[in-house]
Amino acid sequence: MPARYDFDPRTFQGHLATSLVGRFLVYRVVVGSTMDIARREAAEGAPHGTLVLAEEQTSGRGRKGRSFFSPRGENIYATFVLRLDVEQHRRLPMAVPLAVCRACEVFCPDARIKWPNDIWIGGEKASGMLIDAEYAGSEVIAYPGIGINVNGDPTVNPELRGIATSLRRASGRPVPREELLARLCNELETWLEAPTQSLAREYRARNLLLGREILVHPPSGEPYPARATDVDADGALVVELADGRREALRAAEVTVRPS
């Protein structure tokens, strides 16, 4: 691996302004999945805020069991170990994408959240997230897995052309991964503790779908058109149907309808 791709933990720590999130870093060059390492660390007592970071994943996973394209050395592949109470866990579906979006928009101001947990820039995906969790008594151990296309070019994969982008490709300049990841940690700690009303307001302000005509792809059945109108306190997307009825979407896959 070229030395220029090496992540510098000391530079990362220098940008970190958190009390706990990101303070304990588990850094690997190649792993199957950072999510698997995070679960192992949690089982061995890893503290709240532990961050597992890898230069490359060979078995990265996305939503609905999809594989996640994870080439070496240019992007961010990370999973956190978060020990939360029930209320904090309830806010996580909004707090994680908001933290990622706010960190990315420092370098790409037009970064937006595409519900439920992708970051899009200019109509193309720059980041994806997967949140797993398990209960341990009254505590919830959550594992937000985050992939951000930072300095790589996802279009080297023909299947991703016109679908995915990177911060460097969108901004036209290299992005320091250490600073980006530290900003993400700073934002995540902030929004885990923020009042739900403030969290929801900031999340809505960056939501790409609100006010737009979309196609709803349910887990079963045919897609149907709707208009995205709101995001509720639990992070569900509220849509208005053609007959005026409203639905709160949680499990459905949502696709923006071409205009």
Task: Please render the helix and strand layout as text.
Blueprint: H1 9-15, E1 25-31, H2 34-43, E2 50-57, E3 76-84, H3 86-105, E4 112-114, E5 118-121, E6 124-136, E7 139-148, H4 167-171, H5 177-193, H6 196-205, E8 213-217, E9 224-231, E10 237-240, E11 246-249, E12 253-256
Parallel strand pairs: 1-2
Antiparallel strand pairs: 2-3, 3-7, 4-5, 5-6, 6-7, 8-9, 8-12, 9-10, 10-11
Give a quick rundown of the structure.
This protein has 259 residues and is of the alpha+beta class.
Characteristic terms for this protein:
259 residues, seven-stranded mixed β-sheet, 12 strands, globular, BirA Bifunctional Protein, domain 2, alpha+beta, 31% strand, five-stranded antiparallel β-sheet, 2 domains, SH3 type barrels
Q: Overview of this structure, please?
A:
- There is one protein chain.
- With 259 residues, the chain is an alpha+beta fold.
- It has two domains: 3-205, BirA Bifunctional Protein, domain 2 (2-Layer Sandwich); 213-256, SH3 type barrels, CATH 2.30.30.100.
- Helix content is 27%, strand content 31%.
- It has six helices and twelve strands.
- The protein has helices spanning 9-15, 34-43, 86-105, 167-171, 177-193, 196-205; strands spanning 25-31, 50-57, 76-84, 112-114, 118-121, 124-136, 139-148, 213-217, 224-231, 237-240, 246-249, 253-256.
- Strands 1-2-3-7-6-5-4 form a seven-stranded mixed sheet, with helices on both faces.
- Helix 3 runs antiparallel to helix 5 and helix 3 packs parallel to helix 6 (196-205).
- The radius of gyration is 18 Å and the shape is globular.
